[in-house]
Design goal:
Order of helices and strands: HHHEEEHEHEHEEEEH
Number of domains: 2
Bound molecules: copper (II) ion
CATH superfamily of the largest domain: Glutaredoxin
Strand order of the largest sheet: 2-1-5-4-3-8-9
CATH architecture of the largest domain: 3-Layer(aba) Sandwich
Helix content: 40-55%
Largest sheet: 7 strands, mixed
Distance between the termini: 30 Å
Radius of gyration: 25 Å
Structural class: alpha+beta
CATH topology of the largest domain: Glutaredoxin
CATH class of the largest domain: Alpha Beta
Oligomer: single chain
Length: 238
């Protein structure tokens, strides 16, 4: 799974290490032979180590505390979701407002996905089956993060493999970026060197969102949640 925040903190660590090396550098010219200068050198080294350790505690420890508990949502649930304008698999423009009064079960992915998307869409479909009549109020939505290849016609063909109620959504790259941003979904093209321009995979977040009748975030399901568990959790909100 992708953790952009971890990546950036790694980079910060690298930079910090580089800085630490830089600050060590001026010590060398001080180390001239002789007792007093050697004592001075040791003293200076001790001071540097002390400040270095203090610095590490001041910077690193709060950082570890903020990243070591991914279960705690620091962003708040209110910021997940938001307005979108996309194109459904009938090539019709749709917005989030069209779904007011219904629950939205939203998953982001792409039709060329080798594993995560087909598995999740199968789980979603099975969960809907499990819910039976209760699923009438739920709009299961599959939004592509690969609109360049996933045109509406292709989305239509793809979702037919899963559940008759599934709604496939595509749009312009800009529209998809907007909705993905609103749902804090990460996605990125991964093309191997020398591959054809349209021969690539998409790295993407694999979270399924349940949004309320008012369009507000209710809960989310991580990849691998069983259909049974998903159905039970959804039912608790209906
Ligand atoms: Cu996928």
């Amino acid at each position: 799974m992708n953790k952009p925040s971890d990546q950036s903190s790694d980079q910060k660590d690298d930079q910090k290490e580089k800085k630490a090396q830089d600050s060590d550098a001026p010590i060398e010219p001080v180390a001239v032979p002789g007792r007093s200068s050697r004592r001075g050198f040791i003293l200076m080294a001790v001071i540097i180590i002390c400040f270095g350790t203090l610095g590490w505690f001041l910077y690193k420890v709060p950082m570890m505390q903020s990243t070591s508990n991914p279960g705690v949502k620091t962003t708040g649930t209110a910021t997940i979701g938001g307005p979108f304008t996309l194109v459904d698999h009938f090539n019709k423009t749709v917005t989030d407002a069209d779904f007011r009064g219904r629950y939205m079960l939203i998953f982001f992915g792409y039709t060329y996905c080798p594993d995560v998307c087909p598995t999740t869409l199968t789980d979603i479909s099975d969960a809907l089956g499990e819910l039976g009549k209760d699923a009438d109020d739920i709009a299961p939505i599959f939004i592509t993060v690969d609109p360049e290849r996933d045109k509406p016609e292709f989305m239509k063909e793809y979702i037919e493999h899963f559940h008759p109620k599934l709604i496939g959504m595509s749009g312009t790259v800009e529209q998809v970026k907007t909705v993905a941003g609103a749902y804090r979904v990460f996605f990125q093209k991964a093309r191997e060197k020398g591959a054809e321009p349209d021969d690539y995979l998409m790295n993407h977040s694999s979270i399924t969102y349940l949004m309320g009748k008012d369009g507000k975030f209710l809960t989310h399901f991580s990849h691998g949640t069983s259909a049974k568990d998903m159905a039970a959790k959804i039912k608790s909100f209906l």
